[in-house]
Write a structure and sequence with these properties.
The complex is a heterodimer of chains A (394) and B (136).
Chain A lengths: L7 E12 L6 H16 L8 E4 L6 H8 L2 H5 L8 E2 L8 H14 L5 E9 L5 H10 L17 H13 L3 H16 L12 H5 L3 E3 L2 E2 L8 E10 H4 L8 E9 L15 H12 L8 E3 L6 H9 L8 H6 L16 H4 L6 H15 L12 E6 L6 E8 L4
Parallel strand pairs in A: 2-3, 2-4, 9-10
Antiparallel strand pairs in A: 1-7, 4-7, 5-6, 8-11, 10-11
Helix pairs in contact in A: 10-11
Chain B lengths: L15 H8 L4 E5 L5 E2 L14 E5 L3 E10 L13 E8 L4 E6 L12 E8 L5 E7 L2
Antiparallel strand pairs in B: 1-2, 1-3, 4-5, 4-7, 5-6, 7-8
The chains are: A alpha/beta (394), B mainly beta (136).
């Protein structure tokens, strides 16, 4: 059984701007992203033999259309595509779609895989979305009756983390400041205005310690990426981006059952991924870290070994993750800057990691970036995924 | 008078003893007869050793607050009259964890590792929710 390492390449990416676009149908989000990824890759679309749409939250019927091969028909791949199936883990769909594609291609079961995400949670009614997310990943029998909801999830991690590490509200707020600084440079971002720490902590309180500025702003969006063999990638126009290592842990379904909300699974996941990739924390040029809430980049920076335990807040506060900082982090602005497109928040971050390594990140480009780490989390931050990507083969 | 407008638990065949226990002012948790581990929330079989030989035992109902949040706005439907309210994960003395509300305590006085004990809130005729208050 051979490893995927060295055999797999990401060769194209596509993305539509995130935001609230009531008149832009969700299918358009998917199709525009797919088309852009196909053109970007330089691959003939007829070579795509496997389409993996991830899940969509805003509408069950649309989601079923994605499962039932709507995109195969729209992209003119009937009787050419061999597989269309969903791979879905909420926010960590990015990492698990890539893993699935790596497995299929390495095993010889697919040659070119198109992974795509699209959703429309931004222009759906707000209270409807709050109530929807109040039941998603939150046990209806054990947590919903107490008024628990998605906007309280990050808060439970943050309260304990601050208690154990002494991290301050200002330090946590600086994560939002960092995300917004990157979003200003990203034409696909929804929240392109800089915020000060005071803007963040003086905003309306939602669920302590987090204010409205520290919560997700739901957005419509879509993104896609194309995965193939290193062999096929050789004569394609983009510099290929190689997945080098994966690591992950699932730590809860019900948030109350997680035994360490201050570390999650990132310590174990990182060690696995670094070992597989043969790289160390100091080799990382750009850290494309999943946010959702500003607590998670802090926990993740520590789990990745980029910061010591309890020091990530100070690290971000001092500007190390901002444009020009020594560890550029979540350079698309993350969900706190680009907007939360449901499962797409993670896909956008993976696409940004690829964009950085291809050298196509424009004003956000981290010069000479060779190694990127991408992380993701799904549900109520149930799992911790770490993916190491490289511009060069090991 | 308005009825109870918040979401209610819908007990399953294997969790019903827990909710019946709450009505009777007892916080019941499962214990595996084979591996002796305590189990919460109620399971069909033991998640540690997969045994179906589970019994119900009464928890001390005492524990500490592992973490919490105080909700001020954007609350789910039905909770508008409750804000600010405190949601916490309580670690019971048996080592199991349960989500609930902290009551009979001003939100600004709630801290991690605070000692709490269970009280029972009869929210409807059918459902009693276990909530927690500080040990004074």
């Amino acid at each position: 059984m051979g490893s995927f390492k060295g055999k797999i390449a990401i060769v194209g990416i596509g993305e539509v701007p995130s935001g609230k676009f009531p008149d832009r149908p969700c299918l358009q989000n998917a199709l525009e992203a797919c088309k852009e990824a196909i053109i970007d890759s330089g691959i003939r679309k007829e070579e795509i033999d496997t389409i993996i749409p991830t899940g969509t939250f805003f509408d069950r019927r649309y989601n079923t259309d994605m499962v039932f091969s709507k995109l195969v028909e729209e992209l003119g791949l009937l009787r050419k595509a061999k597989n269309n199936f969903q791979v879905f883990a909420g926010g960590s769909s990015s990492s698990v779609m890539l893993k699935t594609a790596c497995g299929l291609i390495t095993a010889g079961l697919a040659k070119v895989v198109l992974c795509v995400q699209s959703d429309k949670v931004g222009s759906s009614p707000t209270q409807q979305m709050i109530d929807l997310f109040a039941t998603f990943g939150i046990p209806e029998e054990w947590e919903t009756p107490f008024g628990f909801f998605m906007a309280g999830t990050g808060s439970l991690f943050a309260t304990r983390y601050m208690y154990e590490t002494g991290t301050t509200p200002e330090q946590i707020a600086s994560v939002v400041v960092s995300m917004r600084k990157w979003a200003v440079l990203n034409p696909n971002a929804m929240l392109r205005r800089e915020l000060s720490i005071e803007d963040v902590i003086n905003a309306k309180m939602v669920a302590t310690p987090f204010t409205t500025r520290e919560g997700n702003i739901l957005a419509d969006g879509g993104a896609a990426f194309i995965v193939t063999s290193t062999e096929r990638a050789k004569d394609l126009p983009n510099p290929a981006v190689y997945p080098l290592g994966f690591g992950s842990r699932v730590c809860h379904y019900a948030i109350s059952q997680n035994t360490d909300l201050t570390r999650l699974g990132f310590y174990e996941a990182s060690q696995e991924a670094y070992k597989m990739a043969g790289v160390k924390p100091e080799d990382v040029d750009v850290a494309e870290i999943y946010d959702g809430y500003p607590i998670f980049p802090l926990i993740t920076l520590e789990g990745l070994g980029i910061c010591k335990r309890g020091e990530a807040g100070g690290f971000v506060y001092e500007g190390n993750t901002w444009p020009g900082g020594k560890m550029p982090m979540t350079t698309n602005g993350g969900m706190l800057g680009q907007g939360h497109t449901a499962a797409g928040g993670g896909v956008a971050i993976l696409v940004e990691a690829v964009r950085q390594l291809m050298g196509k990140a424009g004003a956000r480009q981290v010069k000479g970036a060779k190694i990127a780490v991408e992380t993701s989390m799904g549900g109520t931050f149930m799992d911790s995924h770490v993916v190491i990507l490289g511009r060069e083969l090991p | 008078m308005r009825g109870y407008e918040k979401p209610l638990p819908k007990p399953s065949t294997w969790s019903k003893p827990f909710w019946d226990g709450c009505k009777n002012r007892k916080l019941l948790i499962q214990q595996c007869e084979d591996c002796k581990k305590y189990i919460f929330y109620p399971k069909l079989f033991c998640p540690f050793c997969l045994s179906r030989d589970l019994s119900w035992v009464e928890s001390t109902g005492r524990g500490t607050i592992y973490t919490f949040t105080v909700v001020y706005s954007y609350q789910p439907t039905g909770f508008a009259d409750d804000v600010p309210y405190t949601i916490a994960v309580v670690k019971l003395s048996e080592g199991i964890r349960i989500m609930s509300n902290i009551v009979q305590c001003p939100p600004e006085e709630v801290v991690c590792d605070m000692e709490v004990e269970v009280i029972f809130d009869d929210v409807t005729q059918e459902i009693t929710l276990p909530k927690f208050k500080p040990v004074r």
